[in-house]
Write a structure and sequence with these properties.
four-stranded mixed beta sheet; Nucleotidyltransferase, domain 5; 106 residues
Amino acid sequence: MNSLYIDTTSNQEIILRLTRDGKVETVKQALEKQKAQIVLPLIQKLLNKHQLTPQDIDAIEVNPGPGSFTGVRVGVSIANALSYALGIPVNKINVLEEEGIVEPQY
């Protein structure tokens, strides 16, 4: 099972964690520009490093907050969009089964 963790709640850094077959790799990226411009390329870089595609992800976990107002929205929006596009749960919620979406906590 492959799972992706996204945490964009901090104003200082972005944290991504890929769990693949019980092995965990954590990537932290200090913020040099807007989070929305960093998160998706960072996810792609992490997946490429492990020779995975987004379709290989089985589940997503996202930190819904509290935290930076914009940061929380960026992470939750990306997680929900990936969940919808890939048909996988985010924080154990499956948007395709109309269970709802993960909402930011401010």
